[in-house]
Amino acid sequence: MSAIHQVLLAGGAAAYQVPYSLRFRRANSAYLSRTPASTGNQQIMTFSWWMKIGELPSANQVKVIFASGAAGSNPFFAIGFNDGNNAGGNAPLRMSILEGTSSVLTSLASDMLFRDPSAWYHCVVAIDTTQATSTNRVKLYVNGTQQTLGGTTTYGTSGVYPSLNANINYNTSTYATLIGKSSYLSQYFDGYLAEMNFIDGQALTPSSFGQTDSATGVWVPKKYSGTYGNNGFYLKFADATTTTTIGNDSSGNANNFTTSGISVTSGVTYDQMTDTPTLNYAVLSPLDKSSVVTFQYSTLGITGGSAGGGDTFSQTAMTFGLPTTGKWYLEFKRDTAGSDANGIGVNITRTNRGGNGWPATRGISGYTGYYAFEYGFNVTHDVASNNLTYRNNNVALNTYSTASTAASAIYGFAVDCDSSLVYMYENGVLLTASGGLSFTHPGGQAVIALFKSDLVASINCGQRAFSYTPPTGFKALNTANLPTPSIKKGSLYMDATLRTGTGATASVSSLGFQPDLVWIKSRSAATDHGLYDAVRGVQKQLESNTTTGETTETTGLTAFNSNGYTVGSLAQLNTNTATYVDWAWKEGVTPGFDIVTYTGNGTNRTISHALGAVPKFMVVKRLDTGNGWVSYHASQNASPATGYMYLNSTAGFAAASTMWNNTAPTSSVFSVGTNSETNGNTFSFVGYLWSEIEGFSKFGSYTGNASADGPFVWCGFRPRWIMIKDATAANLGWRIYDTVRETYNVMGGGLEAADAAAENYATSVRGIDVLSNGFKIRVSASGINGSGAVFVFAAFAENPFKYSRAR
Fold first, then answer.
1. pTM here?
2. 102 pLDDT exceeds 90?
C-alpha cells in the first residue's frame, strides 16, 4: 500500500484504507460489463458501494450505478440518479425495476437529494422480496442510515415495492450486469466509484461494510468479511496494468468485468484514482461556477463558453479551501488553446465572493477577457504573446515568456502558505525566481481555477500521478494532508436535540458535554423561545423573539447536567405531546464561546471577555423588560461597529455608533457606548460572544442572486446549525436550519429567532443544501437570496471538512 494511504482514524486506531477508486467519465461512455455464467438468487441480494459524484445530472439525464436487462427495451433493472420530478441537477437516487412494456413492478425514489460533489457517500441497497411487509423488500442506506423510499411519477406510479417473492431482473445469465450504464437507455454515471460489493443471496445492513469512527462520529469503510455467493463480486480497482485487469474481481469468485471507455494510460484521461473514501482530494466544484461552464474528466476539467463572447467567462472554484499554513502543489493543463486572444488564468482569491460566487465586473487592464480578483494572486496567460503575467491583490508584478504552445503546457503551482510565497513551473521548469513571489492569502476557500471562453483545461491535485515531481516538502490537496482541527467532532461542543413534551419533569441525557447555553423552541406550537445559560443560573429565562426581560421560571430549565439538562413542567418548554427542538452550546476557548455578564454605567467603556480571539458574532440583552437583543456581526456592514441588528426583529442593519462605541472588538475586550440597550446605567446585561474556530464555526456573509442556482457558501465543515439574516433590509427574522429536524437535503429551516410561530416549511424558503464543506442556496426567495442583498450567517459544525461525508 502506498505511503500516502498509511493514515489513522481520528481516534488514533489503525484504519481500513481504500487505496483506489475508478473514475467513470460520462463523456467517454465509461462502463463495466459482465454476463453471469448462471443465474443466481433473484430475490435476495445486497449492493454496497462508495461514490463521489462528478457532474450533476441535468434535466432528463439518468446516471446509473448498477443495471441489467434487455438492451434498449424492457425488462430492465437500474439503481442510479435522475433529475426525477425536480429541476435539472436535483439528482435524487432512484431505484427502478420494470417488467414488460409498461407494467411497473417497482419505482422508488429517496427523499434525500444527492448533489454534494465535494466528498464521498456510502450507499447500500438491500433487496429481499421474500419479506411479508412490502417496505422491507427494498432498503436504501446512506452513510450508515436508512433512508425513506417514496414514489416517483416518472412512470406514473406513487411508490411501488416488488410483489412478494418477485424475481428481480438482476443476477441472471440472460442479461449483462452493467456498472455505470443503463441497459435501457444509453446514459452513463459520471464520477468516482470504490469498494463495490455485490452479495448474491443475502440482504445485509451497512454494518457489514462500514462503521462509525468514535472520535469523529463519521461513517468510515470497513472490510467486508462475509461470503459473496455464486455471482457476488468485489471490485477494488487495484490493478491498473491494463484495462482488463482494472475490472478484476477480488472476491475469490473470478467474476471479472470488461471495461469500456476506461483508460489506464498516463495523462488527463488516466482513470485509476487515489481519490477514495479514506483520502478525499480537491476537485472543481459544480456548485460554485459561472453559468457557461460545463465539466469534463469528472470535475477535474472544464470546457468554457462560446469563443469571443465578451461576457462568456468560464470560471469555477475548487472543493477545498487553501489552508493558511503548509506547502501545497497542484498542476494545471491547457488541453486546447481556444480561439480567444487572451488565453487562460488561475487565481487564488477569497471565499464567498458574492452573487453566484463570482465578481460582477471586469477590471484587469489590458485583459478585458478576465475578471479582476481583489484578493490573493492571479495568473493570466496571453495566447497571442505567449506571456504569463502574475498579480498579487490585482497589482501586476511579473511577466514571464513561456516556451510551450497554449495547448500543451502543464503549469505547476507550489504555494508556500507558511512563507507567503508562490513558485510557478512550466513543464517542470521553474519560471519564477528561486526565491518565489509574494502573495497575500485571502483565507477561506481560496483555490480558484479561471478559464476564458471556449478553452478546455484540467487540474491535477494528486489524485493521479503528477506530471512533474513537486518541490521538496510540498503536498497534494487531500484530506490526509489538511491540518488537524482542534475540534474533530462538533457534537462535543454544540448539538441539537429533538424532544416530545411530557408535561412533567424530563431530562435530556444525549449530549456529549455539559451545556452552558440551552435554547428551546416548540416546533408544533406558536410559543416563545426560551434561552437559559449557566452563568445567569438555572430557571432564569430569556426569549429571543421578544423584548421581555429575564424571568424566573421555577418549572423551566432546572438543571445543567454532565450530559444534558433537565426541564420542568413549564408549558412553554414541555407541553405534553408537543414537539421541541433544543440547541445547546458549551462555553470555553476551544469552541470559541463566552458568556459575559456586566452592569452598565452609561459611559463609553470596554468589557472583558475570555475568548482569546476577536469575537465575530455578539448578542447583548439588557435583563430588564422592554429592550431588544442587540447583535454585532463582523459581516453586517463594511464597518460593523457603526451599527447593529436586533435578534428579535426582522429589520436589517441600522446605524448607531453608541451601541458599540464605533469600536471593533479585540481579542480581550468588546466596546459599548452610551446607548441604554448595551450600557444603560445600573442595568444588568448578558452577552453571548462567539469567535471563529476553523473547522467548527463560521460567521460570514454572502450576496444573493435571486436564482434557484444560488450562492455556494464555504464554511470548511459540514454544518449542524445555520442561522441566516438579511442585513440589507427588513426580511425574515433570523431563519434557523439544523440537521436534526431535517436529515436530508433540501432543507427548509422552519423556525426564526425573531418569531414565535410554529415550524413552517414554506416552499418559498425551503432552499438550502447542507454540504460536506458548507451550504448552497437552492431557492430564489428574497428571504434568503434577494438579488444584491447581503445575508449574514452563523454556522456550527457536525464535522470539519477533513473528516466529513457528503450529505
1. 0.91
2. no
